[in-house]
Write a structure and sequence with these properties.
Elements lengths: L1 H15 L7 H29 L3 H5 L13 H10 L1 H32 L5 H10 L5 H15 L6 H4 L7 H16 L3 H9 L4 H12 L1 H17 L2 H6 L8 H19 L5 H33 L5
Helix pairs in contact: 2-15, 4-15, 5-9, 5-12, 9-12, 10-11, 12-15, 14-15
């Protein structure tokens, strides 16, 4: 009898666990939540991929839902040509990498100053920094457009890249706060030891603090890169008359062209596949970047305090 009771106790502990988060039921519950969450995020991507490789018969056949009978790459080819993908990809990459590098450096300097240096009226300056969160971009775009036209740099990438050098805007404010949070958590003994050895403020920042800030640097760079890559508003303002627009603006132009064609000649069965193909070409580079950098990105988010 005691053996049976002991066996039943082991079975109960294996199912329910001695603690609330140790049993089999808890693990099954967690896996169900993770699978549901993954399905919610992956379903649109899977639908996009399967739709863009369907040919005409598969699009007309209601029984073909997820797996097409024939893999058709004509929609991708049309989207590639309509987007002028090599040139548009190069322009988007130039904008995203340039802005990300400049914001990574300039915001690091400002974040270190807010976290460590004794700056006059630092609290007031930080208050003004926080105000940028509530000032919409549409409020300042008109004077910036006028200024860009006066300088003769409209329809170029200069009005988009140069503000990143000074950490302007909502993105700059967010990245400065990320750096400030990270530098505030570092031990002050490191700076004191460097100053005892005769290091100046610049040497302390570049030789001591920046090597420690690799997690924050990676987080800021990836956030800035993806944010700029997906940005439609600024390119639509500054590059509206450019011959080859970036990908975010090119997708909008293709969507307008498809709508115009539908009004003239009626809807086409290839409207959705081509839209899916253009979207896929747009999101593919950030996905590839995240696949290679996800481990360092997650570690950087944890170490910069964004999850606290």
């Amino acid at each position: 009898m005691s053996a049976v009771v002991s066996w039943l106790s082991k079975v109960r502990y294996s199912i329910f666990g001695r603690e609330a988060d140790k049993g089999l039921l808890y693990k099954v519950f967690i896996y169900l939540i993770l699978i549901d969450a993954a399905y919610i995020y992956l379903k649109p991507v899977l639908h996009m991929v399967t739709t863009m490789v369907k040919d005409g018969p598969d699009l007309l056949d209601p029984s073909v839902n997820w797996i097409p009978r024939v893999i058709y790459f004509g929609n991708l080819q049309d989207a590639w040509e309509w987007l002028k993908y090599p040139k548009a990809f190069g322009l988007s990459m130039l904008l995203s990498v340039s802005v990300a590098l400049l914001q990574t450096c300039s915001c690091a300097i400002a974040g270190y100053a807010f976290a460590r240096l004794k700056v006059p009226f630092k609290s007031v300056l930080f208050f003004f920094l926080l105000i940028t969160f509530i000032v919409p971009l549409q409020l300042t775009i008109l004077p910036n457009l006028v200024f860009a036209r006066v300088l003769g740099v409209l329809d170029t990438v200069i009005p988009i890249i140069v503000p990143a050098l000074f950490g302007l805007g909502l993105k700059g404010a967010l990245f400065i706060i990320i750096y400030r949070q990270f530098f505030s958590t570092q031990p002050k003994e490191l700076e004191e030891a460097a100053r005892i050895d005769g290091a100046s403020v610049y040497k302390v920042f570049f030789r001591v603090m920046m090597p420690l800030a690799k997690p924050a640097i990676l987080v800021v760079f990836l956030f800035s890169f993806v944010w700029t890559w997906n940005d439609f508003y600024l390119p639509s303002m500054y590059l509206a008359n450019a011959g080859t627009p970036p990908l975010s603006l090119g997708i909008s132009r293709i969507a307008s062209m498809i709508r115009d064609q539908a009004e003239l000649s009626g809807p086409s069965i290839f409207t959705e596949p081509i839209s899916m193909a253009t979207t896929f070409l747009m999101i593919l580079p950030p996905i590839v970047l995240y696949v290679f950098a996800q481990r360092w990105f997650i570690e950087g988010v944890e170490r910069t305090g964004l999850v606290e």
